Structure formats: structure tokens, C-alpha cells
Amino acid sequence: MDHYIDLRLRPDPDFPPAMLMGALYGRLHRALFDLDANDIGVSFPDHKTGVKARTPGDRLRLHGTQQSLAQLMTQPWLAGMRELVEIAETLPVPDDALHRVVRRRQFKTGNDSQVKRYARRHAIDLEEAQAKFAHTNGPRIPLPFVSLSSRSSQQRFALFIEHGEPQPTPISGHFNHYGLSQEATVPWFF
Question: Which one Pfam family would you cite for this protein (predicted)?
């Protein structure tokens, strides 16, 4: 994790930034999957937390070695989006950078699939399961998220992203095909 590339969304009058970030991040996921890359991490330097302000921001930062980032950027994953994204050059990570774990967080939100699953597991009808979940207030999730489509089920879902506390030393490890890890850190700087 000694180099990085910043990808910044350009303002677009037709599409909100959250929609563009979802499209960009979805393409990155497919590229990481196709490369079977586990050595590229991501962060969202301009993310905001809070129930009313949660957003990943308009900048996606890719972290890795110069070689792994170069291999990713030679792939055609940005085709059709290049006019919507400013791509900075690959740069070395500053010496004084801190480090953070950037991970996926999942929440039980009482959505339709959870209601259906509950009805099946408890052998009750759908209306009874819906009534059980109707009076529960869903969690108020303060984390930024990206709206994506699942490659396997084609269902839309919210990928909630948590940036852990900054720490002085890096922790090595593997990243999933979303560029996230439960234990490995990415450099953190502005």
C-alpha cells in the first residue's frame, strides 16, 4: 500500500453524485472481481457520517502498489465513465500518513427480504410476518453507503462503509473485491 490514485466525480446536471458513485464503485467491483485482486483497497476521503448527512463524497481513492494499480488502470473498467471522472496520476503515499480499516458493515433493517425469510423460517404467512416487523423502528444508520446491484441476484442493495479509527501503524492483509477488509488498513491522509 505505497501508492494511491484519486478518482473524483465531475459535477453532472443529469445525475446526482450518489448515483454516479454507485456506478463507478460497481465498475470497480467488477474489475477487481475479474482480476481476482485482493491487494487493492479503497477509501472515501470526503465521506460524511450522520443519519442526515451520510454520503461517500465525490472522491474514491484506490490504494495499492504501483504495479497493482497500474494493472487495474489498464483494464477497460472506466469505459463510458471517463468523461464523468477526473483521474489523478498514481502517487506515492505521504510518509506521515495514518492508517485506517475501511470495512463493510451490514445491518438488519427489516426489509422485505427479511420479512419473507422470517415467514419461511417460522412457518407463518407473510401478513403475520409483516405485522411483526411493522411496529419495529428500523435502525438509524449513520454510515455512508453506496447503492449497488448484486452480480449474483441482480438485486439492489446498500453497501454501508465504515472508516475505522486512524492509527499510526499499518496492518497488512487481504481485501475483498469491493476493496474492503475487516482487518487490513489503507493509508489515510488528505
Answer: Cas_Csy4
Instruction: Check 29, 63, 99, 163 and give the catalytic one.
Output: 29
DSSP state of 53: T
> Structure pTM?
0.84
What are the domain boundaries of the chain? Answer: 3-107+140-188
Task: Please tell me the distance from the alpha carbon of residue 63 to that of residue 28, in angstroms, as a whole number.
Answer: 13
Domain 3-107+140-188 has CATH 3.30.70.270: no
Vertex 8 angle, CA 53 and 62, to 5°: 95
Tell me: the pLDDT tens digits for 83-123?
999 999 999 999 999 999 999 998 765 567 777 888 888 88
Q: Which one-letter amino acid corresponds to residue 184?
A: A
The answer for 179, left when phi > 0, alpha when psi is -120 to 50, beta otherwise, is: left
DSSP 86: E
Give pLDDT, residue 71. 97
Tell whether the torsion through CA atoms of 165, 176, 61 and 146 is positive or negative.
negative
